[in-house]
């Protein structure tokens, strides 16, 4: 979905929902937008003079193949140096259902675990320990040692809902994977809060949820 971050949701571009929640979040050194889109830059700068863009990110970091770790290693540092703060709250523009109270909680929690990674998660509504895996002909339990346990005895599991991460950039840079930064502390969100916007049915779902609020 080209330029999905500025598609209108409930009458307002998606990214502005996120920005409005951040504008009332406590204890932020500043708000920065990483983008290669001129219209997005104009939109956010007209919305608030508290938003920093610092120019467009490089073309190499704007390709579909660009990963989260590419941004960590090659783009975020310019913002960290501008704000003189290397503790990063990295938020995806599609996280429009996450309100400031969760960001406040995230920052408060991160202060206590700043050596590792804090990430937004939801609880799995079905335990992965009850999964089956295909084995040639037929299927078999993926975790046979746990499959016959009472459900109440199965470990609680979480799903990365892709809304936000908090980390220290100096500790994160150079790692192969962001999950290598440990310990990992979860901040649990409700199941409907993290919606990965991949198509227009996801847009319709967000409009429906916001319309019910």
Helices and strands, with pairings:
Elements: E1 8-9, E2 12-13, H1 14-23, E3 31-32, H2 38-47, E4 51-52, H3 68-74, H4 76-83, E5 87-91, H5 100-112, E6 117-123, E7 132-134, E8 139-141, H6 144-147, E9 158-168, H7 169-172, E10 184-188, H8 200-211
Parallel strand pairs: 3-4, 6-10
Antiparallel strand pairs: 1-2, 5-9, 6-9, 7-8
Summarize the structure in words:
This protein is α/β, with parallel strands linked by helices and 213 residues long. It has one domain: Spore Coat Polysaccharide Biosynthesis Protein SpsA, Chain A, CATH 3.90.550.10. Helices cover 32% and strands 20% of the residues. The chain has eight helices and ten strands. The chain has a four-stranded mixed β-sheet. Strands 1-2 form a two-stranded antiparallel sheet. A hairpin with a 4-residue loop joins strand 7 and strand 8. It is globular, with a radius of gyration of 19 Å. The two termini are 26 Å apart. The model has no long low-confidence stretch (mean pLDDT 90).
List keywords for this structure.
213 residues; alpha/beta; Spore Coat Polysaccharide Biosynthesis Protein SpsA, Chain A; 4-stranded mixed beta sheet; two-stranded antiparallel sheet; 8 helices; 10 strands; globular
Strand content: 15-25%
Helix content: 25-40%
Tally of discrete structural domains = 1
Q: Assign the CATH class.
A: Alpha Beta
- Specify the number of helices: 8
Total strands: the figure is 10
In short:
By secondary structure, this protein is an alpha/beta fold.
């Amino acid at each position: 979905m080209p330029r999905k971050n500025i598609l209108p949701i409930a009458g307002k571009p998606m990214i502005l929902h996120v920005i409005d929640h951040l504008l009332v979040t406590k204890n932020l050194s500043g708000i920065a937008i990483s983008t290669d889109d001129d219209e997005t830059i104009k939109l956010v700068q007209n919305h608030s003079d508290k938003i920093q863009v610092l120019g467009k990110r490089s073309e190499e970091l704007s390709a579909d193949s660009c990963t989260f770790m590419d941004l960590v290693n090659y783009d975020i540092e310019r913002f960290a140096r501008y704000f003189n703060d290397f503790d990063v709250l990295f938020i995806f523009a599609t996280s429009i259902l996450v309100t400031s109270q969760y960001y406040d909680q995230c920052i408060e929690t991160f202060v206590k675990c700043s050596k590792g990674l804090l990430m937004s998660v939801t609880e799995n509504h079905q335990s992965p320990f009850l999964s089956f895996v295909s084995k040639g002909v037929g299927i078999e339990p993926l975790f046979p040692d746990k499959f016959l346990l009472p459900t109440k005895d199965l470990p609680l599991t979480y799903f990365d809902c892709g809304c936000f991460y908090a980390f220290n950039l100096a500790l994160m840079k150079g790692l192969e994977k962001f999950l290598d930064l440990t310990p990992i502390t979860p901040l649990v969100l409700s199941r409907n809060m993290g919606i990965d916007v991949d198509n227009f049915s996801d847009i319709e779902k967000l409009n429906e949820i916001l319309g019910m609020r």
